[in-house]
Every structure is written in C-alpha cells, then in structure tokens.
Amino acid sequence: MIEYNYEWKLSETNFAKNKGTVFSCFACGGGSTMGYKLAGFDVVGCNEIDPRMMKVYIENHHPKYSYLEPIQTFKLRNDLPDELYNLDILDGSPPCSSFSIAGNREDDWGENKKFREGQADQVLDTLFFDFIDLAKKLQPKVVIAENVKGLLVGNAINYVQKIITEFQDAGYKVDFKLLNASNMGIPQKRERVFFYAIRNDIPVSTVDLFGTQPKLDLNFNEKEITFKEIRKTTGNESAYKFGDAIRKYLKDTLPGNSLATVHPKGSFFNEIKVHPDKPTPTIRASGLPYDYIDERMIFEEETILSGSFPLDYNFGKEKPGYIIGMSVPPLMIAKIADEVYTQWLSND
Questions:
Q1: What is the model's pTM?
Q2: Domain, as residue range, for 46
Q3: What are the pLDDT digits (tens) for 10-27?
C-alpha cells in the first residue's frame, strides 16, 4: 500500500501520470483531481458549473480540457475530444445537499431551485443520473462517484437502487461502500458513500451470483489522527464570524459535542467543538468547527490539514473552508484510486 502524508505541498510533489487518464465532473476546487494525481493518474480535464470554482481549479490544475456549464448540457455535446471517449476513470461528485441528513431531505427532492453548488436552477437529486448518462456516452473503463452518507438513510435508499439500475443499463457492474476519511490517514471524520463501477467487457471478479457486483476491497483501518496532532497555537483567523449567541453556548459545550447539547431548544446542531483526542469533525462549506481551548473557529492551516489539501493550494478569493467543505479529501480518492488500479486496471 502506498503511503501518503496529509501534510504536503503541490510545489514539492511530482505526479507520475503513468496509471491512466481521468476526467472529473462536478470538479469544484479539485479535491478529487489531486487524489488521482497523487495516485499516478493523469487528470485531463473537468466539468464544473460554478465559475468561481472553475477559476480556482484552473489556477491550481491547468486542465487540458475545461467545460464551464451544467452537466445537463455537457452530456449532450457532440464536440468532445476523442481522449474523453478513451478514459480509464470518469470521476464525479454530484451535488448532494438534498440528501444530507442535516438538510430538508424529502422536502427538497424534485424541487427546481438554486443551490449553493451552482449558479443555475437545478434539481439536485437528478444530477447523479445525468452523470450516469455521461458515463453511458463516454464508456470509460471505470466510474467512481461520491455522495453523502444520507443517501443510505430512509427513503433515499430508493435512489441508490435506481442508481444501480441506471449503471447496469449503461453497461457497468457496480457496487458501493460507505467510507470514513478518519480511517484513511486523514485527520477528519468525514463519511461518504462511494459508488464504483467497471465496464462489463473488462474481466473482474464479482461478489454475487448474478455477476453484477464487482469485487473491490476497500477496507481501510488506519490509525486515527487526532485534532491535537494538527492543532496550531497561532494562525490566520477564520473568515467565518460567529456572534454572541453562539459564543454564549460555546464555553459550556464539552469538547466533541454540538452546541445543541447545551442549548435549551437544541439549536446550533451543526456547530461542533472539536475534541483533542479525536479527528476533526466534518468540515462543512457553511462553517467550521470550534477549537476546544480558545474561543475561535479552527485556523486556516488546521482546516487545510483536516481536508488533506496541500498547504500551498491557491484558494484565490474563496474561503478555504468553503472549498474544502465542498470537496472530497484528496487522500480519500488517492487511496481508492490505488485500489482501483491495483485490483482492476493493472490487470486489464
């Protein structure tokens, strides 16, 4: 198994580009892209709807191909280069807030509205199927897609079954697994569902009698990296500000708990005080966890380390917490990509 360090820099890293080619959809600032690069893949391009995120992506990754448009129109293009029809991996993280446990869930399903993930009206719960339409068109060897843990909760599981059916109709064997970044050498508790699909004509072992679930060992049990191991005594204060209402309850909240545990009405459920002996709580695009000693949100460098982003990443005018909260931690993808290559692609 390849060893990766969550504390790293783009300027000091040589990317081999000898494992195959990748195209990234819903690319955001490039969390997934950096993971594939670390694993030795050549990420040739991206699709992204948000011009702010595309600007950050281009500044850091200089893609050969970049498409700033909704995936609904991108999948219909007839002018895509031949290279995109010969991909090893098609990657995507369809925006997922409508499935989040902390969100409105069913109340938002099917709603055409403007979400923070883009600059146009979209129905978020259908974007995954637009992504599968693209896979059906491009026919990459492997498709990897990431989504929130909430996709496995309650009625949302019906979407999982539809996702599986759509992948199978597109010509793929597919399975999924819930992974936690804190078990993968990343100092952050971040649970995400990963779908992994391989084209039917590529030989691979299966785990069911019908040959529809491809075998891929994704068992990661690395030692947790605690917040106190990455904590800094000084640093850039977060751009996120909090008022007296939060400050009032923050001091009485025990480390590792939500402010809701001390609020009389259970408010501030997503406001978390870090525990020194546990990984950083999930980094959210809308706000950061709070330090367990000082009255502050975690520092910028602590946020970057928690997300396994490079320390010299150029966030431009964007808040690091926003981009990291919207992104897959690079080391998560690097370790998944390693296994995909070793178990699947290296034998093709």
A1: 0.92
A2: 10-223+325-347
A3: 999 999 999 999 999 999
